[in-house]
Write a structure and sequence with these properties.
There is one protein chain. The protein is of the alpha+beta class. About 35% of the residues lie in helices and about 20% in strands. The strands form three sheets. The chain has a seven-stranded antiparallel β-sheet with strand order 8-7-4-5-6-10-9. It has a six-stranded antiparallel barrel with strand order 11-12-13-16-15-14. Helix 1 (about 30-70) crosses helix 4 (about 160-195) and helix 1 (about 30-70) runs parallel beside helix 5 (about 200-235).
């Protein structure tokens, strides 16, 4: 009887050797063992994959759902992305048609031989020490002392944004409903486990329950924090909800808050401290186009950050005739309410907004408006 010719299942080489392929080296016996093990795995998976897959899939669904919702709710303190961030819009954008060049004579020049420019390090450092970071249950921002006890900031930093409140309330309600549904599912699983006899199925269900209960215990405090945030926002602006972080790291609560009805300004009081404050420039001193300026604030949680740029010009809002100071110094979320100063450390404005979909176009409210608006307190 002649030798039988076989074909290699891997490379299709034909030969008479039944032990090993002469072309690719495949050991035929090992290959058959591999196929047998693969078949056993497929049969085992077909027998128990359905129920286990559904239960384990429930765990994955819970984790993904709660993780996505948690991102929009409470974030750990000090993280900015982590403020998040609490829903308040910093630097509400100004429509392009809302500002125009001021129709006034050029500003006067500074007289020759005037006050010498202070060392940059000292003047900027003094301005930094007069600047504060502000935190509320719904957002963050900046401010600065204009007297020893009074801090100016933007109204939108400390005022509850109603649209943001509605969005946060909706997310918290959805989150709460998901938690309630998960609690109901866990109770059903406990009842099911009680009906099972001791054995692998009961042990498997016990592990699933333990995992899902641990995940639920982790997210319930986040739900409670979100509900507390909504409650604080529903109370409205309150001095007790405004945390003031000084340059030396001290954290205090505002004693008093007054909101402007005409401008994006607010005034806070801290009667328990005697803090350095920013001074206004002499009355005959106006910023010149192209002059170097600085902003100080807490963009995205980075407290007391200093950025520089130039003064771009005086602009007039066409809707109300208010004058704004335009600058290309970086203004980012968290800079709202911070000061716009010159190289001597004189304050000229309160950073308030940026132009939407642009870079390097920011605006500040002139410091004179602050003293006009709160004249009864700052006289």
């Amino acid at each position: 009887m002649g030798n039988t010719t076989i074909r290699c299942p891997k490379c299709s080489h034909e030969q008479t050797n039944t032990v090993e392929c002469g072309a690719c080296g495949l050991i035929f016996a090992r290959y058959r063992q591999h196929l047998a093990r693969q078949q056993d795995k497929e049969q085992a998976a077909a027998g128990k994959g359905s129920a286990t897959g559904l239960k384990l899939g429930g765990i994955v669904l819970l984790v993904l759902t709660t993780a996505g919702l948690t991102y929009y709710l409470v974030r750990p303190a000090g993280e900015e992305p982590e403020p998040p961030a609490p829903p308040i819009r910093h630097h509400a954008a100004v429509p392009e048609q809302s500002v125009a060049e001021e129709k006034t004579p050029p500003p006067p020049t500074v007289a020759a031989g005037g006050e010498a420019v202070a060392a940059r390090g000292s003047s900027i450092e003094e301005a930094r020490n007069a600047t504060v970071s502000l935190e509320t249950p719904w957002g963050t921002g900046s401010g600065f002392f204009v007297t020893k006890n009074y801090i100016v900031t933007n109204r939108h930093v400390v005022e509850v944004d109603q649209q943001g409140l509605a969005e946060t309330r909706s997310k918290v309600e959805t989150f709460r409903r998901l938690v309630e549904l998960e609690q109901e599912k866990l109770e059903q699983l406990r009842q099911e486990m009680g009906r099972l006899p001791d054995g692998p199925s009961r042990q498997q269900l016990a592990l699933i329950l333990e995992t899902r209960e641990a995940e639920l215990a982790r997210i319930v405090p986040q739900l409670e924090a979100g509900e507390a945030q909504v409650a604080a926002m529903e109370r409205g602006t309150s001095a007790s909800d405004i945390k003031v972080i000084l340059a030396d790291g001290r954290e205090l609560t505002a004693d008093f808050v007054q909101l402007s009805t005409r401008h994006d300004l607010a005034l806070l009081a801290l009667h328990t401290v005697d803090n350095p404050y920013l001074r206004r420039a002499p009355l005959d001193r106006r910023l010149q186009q192209g002059e170097k300026v600085y902003t100080i604030g807490s963009p995205v949680g980075l407290r007391h950050t200093v950025t520089s740029g130039i003064f771009s010009g005086y602009r007039v809002r066409t809707d109300d005739g208010g004058v704004l100071l335009q600058t290309d110094a970086a203004i980012n979320p968290g800079n709202s309410g911070g000061p716009l100063i010159d190289e001597k450390g004189y304050v000229f404005g309160v950073n308030t907004m940026i132009l939407r979909d642009t870079e390097g176009i920011g605006f500040a409210i002139p410091i004179g408006v602050v003293f006009e608006e709160f004249i009864s307190l700052l006289r």
